[in-house]
Amino acid sequence: MGLSPVDPAVGIILCPDWLLADAETEPIQAGAVRIVDNTVDAVGLGSALIARHPEDDVIDLPDRIILPGFVNAHVHMYGLLAHGIPLDAAPKGFWSFLKDFWWPKVEDRLDHEMVAAAADWACTEMLRSGTTTFLDILEAPNTLPEGLEAQAGAVERSGLRGILSFECTERSGAAVAAAGLKENVRFIETCRHVRGNKTTSLLSGLISIHTLFTCSDDFIHEVFNQALDLNVLLHAHCNEGIHEGEWCEANYGHRTLEHYEHLGVAGPNFLASQVVHLSATEQRILSDRNVRCSHMPMANAEVGGGVAPIPELRGAGVTVGLGSDGYVNDLYEVARSAFLIHKARLQDPGVMDAHQVLAMATTGGSEALGLERVGRLAPGWSADLQVIDSRFPTPTTTANLAEQVVLFRNGQHVESVMVAGKWRVRNGELVTGDPDAQRAHLQQQALRLWSAA
Ligand SMILES: [Zn+2]
Question: What would you measure as the largest C-alpha separation in the chain, in angstroms?
Fold first, then answer.
């Protein structure tokens, strides 16, 4: 038998001024990426790729940089409905924020139409600012059942790669907690058995719980075993403020991550978001047990939560992604906050350089979410990328490109976005969906929520 013929597939070759294929390797000037179907086939110098594949479509992108699409590892799309909501007074502290405001006035009043409208607009915001993959956590007891399905239509229309989960909690009683778990299980199975048959679907699910102070040990065991059975991650908010650690010490005699270790949950099947207030023991548990983490510097600041010890965790080898947490969904803003806030906290301009921030925004996020071959432009990896403006007012070099991007770009500089080989934003325009109609719908739904509150 002879050698198999050369792959006859025709690809497209995207040729920007600069290719930043991942956060670790040096950017390539006049680099290019070749895409076949939904996957990256090759990266290298544009001239070399064109010579090797003369039959391909070549798209020249002068004054542009191509980099991987961002992974937003923690979103609450429904959070958009509360942006600007009128308050009698600012909540005093984290516990009051939840108990007096967020639970009764936002989460408990959400219905299907509200969360669907928020999902439409959130997907548009994420796509237009370079995000191609995200994890959303919905907590809205009155959207049960089918709250995740109410969001799923919007995500599918957008073309984003989305992991959706419902945040189970016993704060409204055992029946609501059980219904929340059922919601996750049903969605995960629908994605696998119904959507999975459509090769275009980029939707999947995982299981979320709220916190230790809203979930009993028995319930956490049940949920974690279900996650293991389904081979999905269990996600929980951990120590967003000082409240949860103190509550755990008072109720269990040890801190939050120690309790998850005691329950057998702390391990690679566990995704701990926030991780703001950590004892030395808790930091050790995260690294020793290979717990996955996500970091949301802007949202933690907004609620007065604090600053998570992320350089320390990354230094200890912990996988960390970045998240917007229902606040500003432009991951450039989140990345810039991560770049700045740890320098201020540690009074050290040498910590958290631009490469580390870009790693968290791409491969860190995909690894935290347990995704494979997402977050890097390399042969065999998903063709998820963004094309951004490279016209900085100072010269760009291989040495400074990452810093130029992290410090001086934001969502407004994103020109085009591709997810799994399909353009979803092209020349600044959303390919599918009407942003004006989405905005009007969200305005109407937000007003409905606010008048109920
Ligand atoms: Zn959150």
Answer: 79
Give residues with Cβ within 8 angstroms of 259, minimum separation 6. Answer: 212, 248, 252
Q: How does pLDDT run along the chain (453 residues), one tens digit per residue?
A: 334 444 557 899 999 999 999 999 999 999 999 999 999 999 999 999 999 999 999 999 999 999 999 999 999 999 999 999 988 777 777 788 888 889 999 999 999 999 999 999 999 999 999 999 999 999 999 999 999 999 999 999 999 999 999 999 999 999 999 999 999 999 999 999 887 766 568 999 999 999 999 999 999 999 999 999 999 999 999 999 999 999 999 999 999 999 999 999 999 999 999 999 999 999 999 999 999 999 999 999 988 889 999 999 999 999 999 999 988 999 999 999 999 999 999 999 999 999 999 999 999 999 999 999 999 999 999 999 999 999 999 999 999 999 999 999 999 999 999 999 999 999 999 998 999 999 999 999 999 999 986
d(CA 207, CA 167): 7
326 CA distance to ligand 1 centroid (A)? 7
Helix, strand, coil percent values for the chain (each to nearest 5): 45, 20, 35
Distance 386 CA to ligand 1 centre (A): 25
CA distance 142 to 125: 25
In the CATH scheme, what is the homologous superfamily, with its name and number, of domain 70-368?
A: Metal-dependent hydrolases (3.20.20.140)
How many whole angstroms from 79 Cα to the centroid of ligand 1?
A: 9
Q: Where are the domains of the chain?
A: 12-69+374-427, 70-368
315: exposed, middle or buried (Cβ count in 10 Å: 0-12, 13-18, 19+): exposed
Ligand 1 centroid–CA 423 distance in Å is 29
The CA 203 to ligand 1 mean position distance, Å, reads 20
* CA–centroid distance, residue 210 to ligand 1 (Å): 9
* Domain 12-69+374-427, CATH among 2.60.40.2310, 2.30.40.10, 3.40.640.10, 3.40.190.10: 2.30.40.10
Residue owning tokens 């237009």: 128
Q: What is the pTM of this model?
A: 0.96
**Closest by alpha carbon to 38, among 415, 423, 416, 432?**
423
Residues by chain with Cβ below 5 Å of ion ligand 1: 325
